[in-house]
Amino acid sequence: MDDKARLEEFEARINAGEKIEPKDWMPEEYRKNLIRMISQHAHSEIVGMLPEGNWLTRAPSLRRKLVLLAKIQDEAGHGLYLYNAAETLGISREELLDNLHTGKAKYSSIFNYPTHTWADIGAIGWLVDGAAMVNQVSLMRTSYGPYARAMVRICKEEAFHNRQGYELIAELCAGTPEQKQMAQDALNRWWGPSLQMFGPDDKHSVHSEQSLRWKIKAESNESLRQKFINMTVPQAEARGLTIPDPELVFHPETKTYSYGPINWDEFFNVIKGNGFLNKQRLKTRNEAHDRGHWVRQAAEAYAQKHKQ
Ligand code: 3HC
Predict the structure, then answer these.
(1) Which of 135, 222, 272 maximizes ligand 1 atoms within 8 Å of its Cβ, making it the mutation to test the pocket?
(2) pTM beyond 0.90
(3) Which residues does ligand 1 sit against, CB inside 6 Å?
(4) 251-273 confidence digits (pLDDT tens)
């Protein structure tokens, strides 16, 4: 079979809703695009542990600490499933990690913002994990089998992350006026960056056309952002919080919200590495990796011993 015939067969399988598996023929562009997207996703899970890890010693109760610890450990697991899924496409774990540690690969823009108060930890769970969940539920339908299967457990855990964040925010809203203000301030800080997480609008998204054609992505950035807004605004209103967007309008006929402009200058600046915390996150991540050297060495020695 020549490449043209192979491509036709590949696209026919995608259009029939079949999953593509690691040993199947696939266009080089499909493979490269998936490695890029899955590895960025994996890096986001791992870097996402950093802002929350900073709050473990400051959680206000043992219950809150246990919940936060469980969430952070889940994120490490998500990173591992995703690195494994990327490895099935013929790239090594070392290369993947090297791309993160040298700044060659991206991770989600959202993790370059500071967490000023405990309410920010609630906002991360509610908004950031909420946005991640909306995106990832749609990725359960991605055409690449290992990625789609990794999403099943990840989405269940993201739902828990989202609920615990909302519960934390709800508790602050039911507390003193100062506590409620903390929740509102956190919402004000995290709303815009959470909307940016979905990536540029359809006109400015470089990869969407190809990714939608090959069902790497099941939905466009814009449509997922809209779903997130429709889901989250009523949750804010239920707690007496105000979404920081004066142009937000509900349209009862379509049951959707229209919203004001998103700050894309800020977004592109952050993904170029100039966000508030890009340099610090990379430094901390590199230090953590170096500190884990002895663990990798011990695991390697154990594996060698059991091979003999
Ligand atoms: N942060 C950083 N970079 C982003 C971005 C974001 N929020 N959104 C878009 N970009 C980058 C793209 O990577 C691309 O750059 P590149 O060509 O150098 O890779 C460029 O901006 C143009 O964007 P596109 O729309 O063309 O990119 P995609 O088609 O890849 O769409 C995406 C972006 C929607 C993020 C998509 O990649 C995706 O769905 N990825 C999988 C999900 C994911 O990565 N989630 C991370 C969220 S955090 C998380 O899950 C952790 C959880 O525990 C909270």
Answers:
(1) 135
(2) yes
(3) 36-37, 40-41, 44-45, 48, 75, 106, 108-109, 128-129, 132, 135, 196-200, 205-208, 211, 221, 271
(4) 999 999 999 999 999 999 999 99
Backbone angles phi and psi of 199, in degrees to 5: 90, 170
Q: Map out the domains of the chain with their CATH numbers.
A: 3-307 (1.20.1260.10)
What single letter denotes the amino acid at residue 285? R
Per the CB < 8 A criterion, the answer to whether 217 and 139 are in contact is yes
The Cα–Cα gap between 258 and 229 comes to: 9
Chain centre distance of CA 234? 22
Residues whose CB is less than 8 angstroms from the CB of residue 90 and which lie 6 or more positions away in sequence, other chains included:
31
CA–CA separation, 272 and 269 (whole Å) = 5
Q: How far does residue 56's CA lie from ligand 1's centre (Å)?
A: 27
The token pair at 246 is 């004066």
